[in-house]
Amino acid sequence: MLGRGLPSQGRPVTTGNNGTFEFTGLLPGTYRVNCGAVGYEPVAKPDVEVVKGEQPASLQLQLPAEVVVHQHVEVTGHATKVTGETAAPPATLKTEEVKSLPLTEQKFMAALPLVPGVIRTPDGRLSIKGTIENQGTLLVDGAETVDPVTGSFSIDVPLDAVESVEVFKSAYQTEYGRFSGGLTTVQTKAPSSKWDYELNDFVPTPRIRAGSIEGIQSDSPRAYLTGPLHGDKLTFSEGFTYDYSAQPVRGLAYPNNETKKEGWTSFTNLYFTVSPQHLTSFNVKIFPFKHQFENIDSLIPKPQSADYAQSGFSIGGQDHYVFTSGGILTTLAQFTDFDSYSHGQGGQDQLITPMGWGGNFFNRWTRSSAQQEVQENYLFHRKQWYGRHDVKVGGDFVHRAYQGTSFSHPVQMLRNDNSVAEQITFGPAGQLTTSDTEFAAFAQDHWTFNDYIAIDYGLRFSSQTLGDPAAIAPRAGVVFSPGKKGRTIFRGGAGIFYDRLPLLAGDYTQNPTRNVTLFDTNGVPIGPTTIYRPFYQEFKEGGKEIVPSGASLGSTPYNFTWNVELDQELLPHVIARVSYLTSRTYNQFIVNPVTLSATDGLLLLSNLGGSRYHEFETTLRVRPSGKVDVNISYVNSSARGDLNTMASVYVPFEQPVIQQNLFGTLPTNVPERVVSWAALKLPRKITLSPVIDWHSGFPYSIFDVQQNYVGPPNNRRFPTFTSLDVNVSKDFTVPFLPWVRHHALRGSVRVFNVTNHSNPRDVYNTLTSPAFLHYAGFQHRSYDLALDVLY
Question: How confident is the model over 684-715, as pLDDT tens digits?
């Protein structure tokens, strides 16, 4: 759906098996319906009126038999060939696509690595265009939905409440801000005007060992309910997911090899039609979650691992008002409360040995945070001046604050004979507190010169109390289609993106000191203890400046990205894309230990960090019929940067040893990757959905016994990763059960790593280890079952 008051890239829906479709939550006004399917000529229905108080607009469209590209229904504004095109369109995943794919979790975030340029690192974090998720942002219905302190994508939305997910590697619209990495947006479903429900995944997956069932391995039932509370004036929806999992971690012996998580997520949505020109919505998210033994692997057994837990909620609302002039005023407000904590399994000293970790994890912390967000923007009625102009202006206000604690007990690095090589003790517990307030204003225009060329351009101004007091971010992009039929599209753009400042940097100097003592093989200290004090220094063009605790840090990380792209229709059912993107990030906060004397040192935080990323992508999408959809992408990329960023040192857990910061290959660097997925509709209502993922192994470093780098960091790689996952589903009915008599059921079998490729995730990388360079944590074939009740 592309039009006034709707996302700029459109709002598509896919028809049901009987060809029906429905758009809900529309403001009164005039729309254009474009309907297309593989093998048919598209049909456009302009001037479709949506009027409050009347019956919903009903359309019956018949498609002439002629092959075209699109196979989904979408509503657009009065668009010509390039009116609705942008310089860097997002990758879009619709909920029905996500549900049909073999994902380890039925969550929208589990599907993001299917997008070229998006990977999931071995520690579970997402990386978009070479940067981890903390440098990006997640918007749910336009509101920021991340951990206010770290920026992690820790707040989930039930999959059944999601309409679509979009991933931007370069979003040139200046209405978007507060990120230097990728942008992920989630559009939730509008509540329906008729009552209905859906139950999914309510059959638990058993734990099978030696041919017998030993309890439950995972259980993630989901429910979705929607309907009217007061006619079509007030509608309601509720999505709910319960999540329990006891997943085995390869490389450890049962029963000490399971990482356990339990939690639930609720998303409540209300739409209230105040008048034919006025629509208001409210939503509530609740997201408690606990993850035991989160970071275990072959070298980190359960007693040495850390637990993580969170609780919180958000309350938000949006208001859309259509003026008689045709302009639309949108107001958004959201309050988020987010509390989290982490701790080890006991109070013993942590031991780091050449064969792995011993003792108990050294650090525990608590954080209590809150975020308030207000946005307001105005979309002007379309202007005519040397073409068509869609102008939007607006601003937003975000306030974040948190308080917490950080306490650590000693860390010892042992040699092979168990003698202590180095010991780290810590000062008193840090009492952490800081806040940041940001104001931003923007103006942007989508200027369509004619049917063949359009540009996006705009300017964003932002000011942060903790960071840069005045930052200006210009952006521009162009889209050009030289042919009359629009089969060839050129795109390109460039822009500056200012990130939100990490709150962990705002109170950095309040962290405990680190006291380092070296020992010889006889256990005798080699010199005095060196005390490393947390310290922040800002580097400006005129030199460096000491920043006292609690003061503004002065600078905000920012990114410059540009891209070029060619989309070409090779055949009526085959589309190819070739693109190149380059991205550089500046003013990143990095941590570096600096020794001043035998007894004095600094754990120096500075704004000298940076990174660079290059990506070449080719994608082919083949849709020979409505029953076959095949996607294959190849990505060649390079990611290099400073290694000791705040997020890499302190998120999700503080590192026991902080090495010297170096500029080198980033842990997210995957030079070559091929990812392919398909949806094949077979006879008897069977759907086969395979996913193939092949990529270069992740990089890793070699360390000595004191965890110093040996040689360049990340100069080794794991073996090439190869995985084939398959989901097979079948729809059927059970007419003798009253409560599902009018609903279809869908049974699914998911098989992961069908070829049983080893795909090791761990390596003994300490130079003196008896198992040096031996891989561990080999992955095996696994299975999952699901049963859904559809509506």
Answer: 999 999 999 999 999 999 999 999 999 999 99
CA–CA dist 771, 354 (Å, integer): 9
Q: How many CB atoms lie within 10 A of CB 190?
A: 20
- Quick check: 414 and 356 in contact, CB under 8 A? no
Give percent of the chain above pLDDT 90: 74
pLDDT in tens, 411-467: 999 999 999 999 999 999 989 999 999 999 999 999 999 989 999 999 999 999 998
Listed in sequence order, the residues at least 6 apart from 305 whose beta carbon sits closer than 8 Å to its beta carbon are 259, 293, 294, 295, 296, 344, 345, 361
Q: 647 by DSSP, 3-state: which?
A: helix
Distance CA 440, CA 116 (A): 31
Rg over CA atoms, the chain: 27
Supply φ then ψ for residue 159, to 5 degrees: -60, -35
DSSP-based three-state secondary structure for 503: helix
Cis bond leading into 469, ω under 30°? no
pLDDT digits (tens, 9 = 90+) for 726-751: 999 999 988 887 777 778 889 999 99
Residue type, 31: Y
Structure tokens at 415: 């040699």
Distance CA(583)–CA(561), nearest Å, equals: 4
The residue type found at 113 is P
Cα–Cα dist 678/705, whole Å: 47
Angle at Cα 136 formed by Cα 398 and Cα 268, nearest 5°?
65
Tokens of 614: 């290059």
> Which region holds residue 172: left if phi is over 0, alpha if psi is between -120 and 50, else beta?
alpha
CB atoms within 10 A of CB 542: 6
Structure tokens at 19: 């060809």
